[in-house]
């Protein structure tokens, strides 16, 4: 249906970026990098948690990538060159860390992994600009597009997680990281084949015009983020992520420890995450079929409540109460992972759909990148906050005595986030006001419209545009 309504190359971009890069690469990267730091460099979990936070810096910088794609065309193209650049960065970084062998120290390896994340972030921003534009023009299709993105991402994650443990066991984590050059190469391919209209103003005066557009884009972003309809739900999105600090590395070291934990094998760790990816697809389908028309505030309240309560399953697992109940470790962790992923996806989907509605026409790529960078900043705060808490409570490679307490505090903060749900508008997707409409009512629409109609070169629908 989406392929018939929208440009088929746009759908191809979603499959390659969200499925192969965002889904497969991110999941594969997550598992393999954990083993890389644990087995190759023998790093403590709190320090790895800090490194994971550094991976999020390229995602926090998404507004910069968005500005570049919206304002600075290359040879007349706004999107295609940036897919190519993202792919080249990813291929170079993955190849370096794989072929460097023992010569790659901790600092050099960290830079390579950050570069791999940067390639993913740049490709993600570029396709997100297209999604935001089409979501604005076709509000009825916004949940369908986000559902397609969610399914592609989860399906790619399913493949990435299910193969990561096996490949780490067979190839070792360092060589396995080199396989990420393949998804990065697909971004280069996408940059050459994807459809995009070429602008006609790529001349000697284009630099001055680009500077004017940059000023207009920055002004539009500044004025748009000041609308209460925009900054309030954005603040909730940040708080819901930042307050739920991450304890992932502590859990990873615990359930792979042969003495304190259940001593899961590399293959089993990958399969656990793969089952979680399947659960994420279920979560997308549940949202799409049952909850996409619900008011945002009500849906997020109950989703956040269940998210906080389901986190208590981690506490039960760490204290090994599941064995007291007669539930084997592998069965309990599958149930826990599935419940957590389903709830997390149902909780996340409405926030993304809401974010696409906040993007002004003309700077939709930049502004959506800004909103998603708020998400990334929340994740960064979550990772670094978790690193601090793990360090303070002395959770190390071999001492997991306080891990249950750290997890319990995390769950309490998840429940505390319910106190901020009033920031989210209590309307459904059809009644969310776009900033352009708000600005027009205040006679400021010109500030948000930074480019002319002919300059908007996102992957637009093949059908005729609506009458303006």
From TrEMBL:
Domain of life: Eukaryota
Pfam assignment, any one: BT1
Classification via SUPFAM superfamilies: MFS general substrate transporter
Record's keyword annotation contains GTP-binding: no
Primary location class: membrane
Membrane among keywords: yes
Localization: Membrane
Keywords of the record: Membrane, Transmembrane, Transmembrane helix, Transport
Regions that span the bilayer: 9-29, 80-98, 104-127, 148-169, 175-195, 268-287, 299-321, 351-374, 403-424
GO cellular component: a single term: membrane
Recorded topology in the membrane: Multi-pass membrane protein
Family: Belongs to the major facilitator superfamily. Phosphate:H(+) symporter (TC 2.A.1.9) family.
NCBIfam families: fbt
Name under which the protein is recorded: Folate-biopterin transporter 6
Species in which this protein is naturally found: Centaurea solstitialis
């Amino acid at each position: 249906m989406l392929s018939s309504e929208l440009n088929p190359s746009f759908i191809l971009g979603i499959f390659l970026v969200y499925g192969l890069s965002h889904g497969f690469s991110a999941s594969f990267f997550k598992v393999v990098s954990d083993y890389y730091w644990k087995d190759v460099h023998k790093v403590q979990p709190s320090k790895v948690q800090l490194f994971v936070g550094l991976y999020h810096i390229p995602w926090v910088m998404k507004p910069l990538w968005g500005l570049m794609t919206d304002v600075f065309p290359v040879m007349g193209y706004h999107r295609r060159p940036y897919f190519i650049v993202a792919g080249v960065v990813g291929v170079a970084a993955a190849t370096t860390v794989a072929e460097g062998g023992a010569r790659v120290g901790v600092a050099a390896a960290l830079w390579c992994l950050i570069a791999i994340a940067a390639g993913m972030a740049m490709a993600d921003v570029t396709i997100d600009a297209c999604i935001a534009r089409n979501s604005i023009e076709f509000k009825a299709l916004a949940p369908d597009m986000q559902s397609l993105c969610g399914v592609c991402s989860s399906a790619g994650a399913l493949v990435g997680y299910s193969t990561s443990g096996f490949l780490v066991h067979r190839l070792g984590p360092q060589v396995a990281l080199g396989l990420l050059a393949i998804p990065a190469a697909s971004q280069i391919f996408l940059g050459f084949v994807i459809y995009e209209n070429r602008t006609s103003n790529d001349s000697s005066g284009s630099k001055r015009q680009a500077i004017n557009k940059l000023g207009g884009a920055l002004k539009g972003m500044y004025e748009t983020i000041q609308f209460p309809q925009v900054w309030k739900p954005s603040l909730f999105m940040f708080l819901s992520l930042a307050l739920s600090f991450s304890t992932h590395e502590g859990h990873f070291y615990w359930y792979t420890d042969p003495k304190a934990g259940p001593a899961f094998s590399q293959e089993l760790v990958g399969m656990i995450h793969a089952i979680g990816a399947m659960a994420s697809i279920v979560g997308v389908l549940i949202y799409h079929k049952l909850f996409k028309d619900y008011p945002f505030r009500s849906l997020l309240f109950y989703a956040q409540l269940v998210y906080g309560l389901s986190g208590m399953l981690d506490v039960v697992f760490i204290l090994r109460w599941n064995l007291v109940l007669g539930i084997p470790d592998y069965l309990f962790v599958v149930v826990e992972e599935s419940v957590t992923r389903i709830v997390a996806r149902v909780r996340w989907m409405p926030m993304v759909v809401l974010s696409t509605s906040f993007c002004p026409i003309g700077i939709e790529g930049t502004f959506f990148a800004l909103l998603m960078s708020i998400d990334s900043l929340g994740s960064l705060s979550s990772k670094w906050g978790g690193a601090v808490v793990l360090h303070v409570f002395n959770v190390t490679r071999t001492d997991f005595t306080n891990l249950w307490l750290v997890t319990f505090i995390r769950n309490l903060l998840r429940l505390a986030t319910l106190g901020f749900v009033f920031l989210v508008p209590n309307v459904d997707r059809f009644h969310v006001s776009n900033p352009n409409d708000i600005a027009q009512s205040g006679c400021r629409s010109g500030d948000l419209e930074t480019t002319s109609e002919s300059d908007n070169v996102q992957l637009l629908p093949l059908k005729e545009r609506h009458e303006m």
